[in-house]
Design brief:
The complex is a heterodimer.
Chain A: H1 3-13, H2 35-49, H3 55-60, H4 64-71
Chain B: E1 3-5, E2 9-11, E3 25-27, H1 39-45, E4 50-53, H2 55-61, E5 84-86, E6 92-95, E7 98-104, E8 113-117, E9 120-124, H3 142-155, E10 160-163, E11 171-173
The chains are: A mainly alpha, B alpha/beta.
Amino acid sequence: MENSKKLELLEDLFELEAGSLIPETVLENLDEYDSMSKLSLIVMMDEEFGKKLTGELILKFKTIQDILDFMD
Amino acid sequence: MSYIIQDHIVIDPGDITLNYHDIDCVLLTHAHFDHIYGLNELLSLFPKIKVYTNEEGKAMLLDAKKNLSFYHNTPFIFKYPDNIITIKDGEEIKTNDLLVKAVFTPGHNPSCITWIIGECIFTGDSYIPGIKTVTNLPGGNKNQANNSLKLIKQLSIGRTIYPGHKIVMNENVSII
């Protein structure tokens, strides 16, 4: 899946406008990256990417690029 | 959070406490894990309890991924499917002397039901005053949530709102 498509998925998940995320976006600065959206991210990784995302891994995510890399 | 009404109805059973004596009815505002995790214990104590939800809620009660418990590493599956009563939007039920009305308020989740009992309205996570309705979990829908919010605000006129979070646990509600 191309990065642009992944970014669309993440923008949809975080309820952000299209084009508002870039790989360099720092998660710590993203108000929408809260506990609910993290749970939603875990579900999306499981159901759409077949990947198990744990709380430990989430803590290691610093930027959107880290999430994009996990989606590969 | 949970509410007990006149000692026989529980809304959204979480932690089971000594306040539970003679429960015969459970109303679910929706079937996310944090609103249902006490159900199995409650049914083991009171096996005749009827659990009211809609078709979506029933499916979630029986699927740990759908109710999201799977992702909390504490998978929950309801063990008493025969006790589930599925209801329709606008349906009224009478339990003991109380008339209870179900109003479907999807948006946070398709299983969301706002319950009206007399002058009380139990909104679950469809409306938590001061907090934006969460719509980014599976099944969430922002447009539906906005429509539900308008409906709830209309229905709340002259009623006391009891939301799904932010009030003292296990408040014992007096229905006049």
